[in-house]
Amino acid sequence: NPWTLGGGSATRMTVDSEESLAMFVRQGMAPEKMVVTGRPSVDDVARTLRQADPAAIRRELGIPEGRRVILCSVPQLAEHDLLPWNRHWEEIDFLFKTMAEQDAAVVLSLHPKSDPDKYRPHAEAAGAVIATRRVYELLPACDVFVASYSSIVAPAIALHKPSVVVDFYDLGYPPYDAAPGVAVLRDRKAFGPHL
After folding, report:
1. What is the mean pLDDT of the segment spanning 127-154?
2. Percentage of residues in the chain with pLDDT exceeding 90?
3. Which among 158, 137, 163 is positioned nearest to 148, based on CA atoms?
4. What is the per-residue pLDDT across 173-188, written as a single tens digit (0 to 9) for each?
5. Contact 71, 146 (CB under 8 A)
6. Which among 14, 58, 68, 76 could bridge 143 via Cys, Cβ 3.0 to 4.6 Å?
7. Cα 146–chain centre separation
């Protein structure tokens, strides 16, 4: 089945977990072709998280000691052609404004595809800070993590950081629906009260 990931003439395939192996088997991949190896890229993330000093990260960002922090991995709705740019900015302003209304510092992490100069006026209007560190480096300093369907939700779960996955865009992906400590919100009206 050439349309199955790892199908066709592949003789072996590495997968990151038993859960991935089971998913690929359900999709038609032969179990004897797969080897569970873990994901080496996560080793660097784990090392970084173990060595992190949350107080130092907060000081670097200018956040007073004791102030709660909402970290947002900013959705790339227009960059990934999920919304036109005008709708993208409406959603971004809604997210930033709603987070800013909470009694917390708002730290934004932009995807590498995102242009910081375009986001800066929106962030400043909400009193949010655009961080230059990688998002996983910032996780230890946050109290709540907000994202769309970001791969960084998994490390947030591992760190026991309450996470909010916003899906006001009808993407409907299931990975975090039953994840511990994660709320998947599909109703914009629920976002502020949930935070």
Report:
1. 93
2. 59
3. 163
4. 888 888 899 999 999 9
5. yes
6. 68
7. 7
